[in-house]
Design a protein that fits this description.
Strand content: 5-15%
Order of helices and strands: HEHEHHH
Strand order of the largest sheet: 1-2
Helix content: over 70%
Distance between the termini: 45 Å
Largest sheet: 2 strands, antiparallel
Structural class: mainly alpha
Number of strands: 2
Shape: elongated
């Protein structure tokens, strides 16, 4: 199974390198559209190789997706934590009630009662 994982990683790495080599041309990225940049009297732009733009866009999409999913699952995680706290509280209460039930009895008889 480990070799299959390494094979998948190698294939993915070869694909990324081939995309990077095929898209080495420098492109100009503008921060604002030309219509909007005229309103602000500035036109910021940056020169980058195209593969950096492509891979950066993929990474930003993954990051936004991870954050979005983490925020979406917040309610579920909070509910799971609440249920875990309630379960711990009930277990403590059950142990306390068992201890009260067997108070004053012989230890062996109390163990036999718990087992049945």
């Amino acid at each position: 199974m480990r070799y299959v994982r390494y094979l998948c990683i190698a294939i993915f790495a070869v694909a990324l390198v081939s995309v990077a080599l095929a898209n080495r041309d420098v492109v100009s990225l503008q921060v604002l559209p030309t219509e909007v940049s005229g309103l602000f009297a500035m036109n910021p732009s940056i020169q980058l190789p195209l593969f950096i733009v492509i891979l950066g866009s993929i990474l930003m999409g993954l990051l936004v997706g991870f954050v979005w999913e983490w925020i979406r699952e917040f309610g579920e995680r909070a509910e799971a934590a609440k249920q875990a706290r309630e379960m711990r509280r009930l277990k403590r209460e059950l142990e306390k009630l068992k201890a009260e039930k067997h108070e004053g009895k012989d230890e062996v008889i109390a163990l036999l009662d718990e087992a049945s």
